[in-house]
Amino acid sequence: MLALNLPLADTQIFACGSQTLLTGLYKAAAEITLSHNKNLRDNIIVVNFGHASPDFNFDNKQALDSKKHAAQHTVYLRARQRQFDSSTTLLNAAEDAGIRLAHGCRQGICQLCRCNKVSGVVKNIHTGKMSSDGYESIQTCINIAMTDVVLDI
Ligand code: FES
Known about the structure:
Bound molecules: FE2/S2 (inorganic) cluster
Structural class: alpha/beta
CATH topology of the largest domain: Ubiquitin-like (UB roll)
CATH superfamily of the largest domain: Beta-grasp domain
Oligomer: single chain
């Protein structure tokens, strides 16, 4: 076993890989508490080298099928009074339109992209589950618009 003598509080962990790998990393890091009530989990930076993004995860046939069959719909950002067309994940579509939304891992793990949907139906590309048409919390990195959607952003 190799033991690294690192100052963990100052250590940043750059991670890229499958959802299983990242979930395991988050769980392991969550067990390490640092000084000042910080947690090693806070030091994880998820990056997407190559095919780590859900849209390009060739192991996830469901994600590809969802994207292939997704028609283009309009997403309205109520608070910002902006809108964009979307046929991919809400996060990617916003960025394609030059709109920056809060995000972290882009893989449905960190929850930093979570926001409230006011109306419209979205589909989770990891589970294939369709949302209701009403108000609910969603993650923009793993949901695609199945109808026109209004977000409380
Ligand atoms: S960006 Fe991490 S869950 Fe969406």
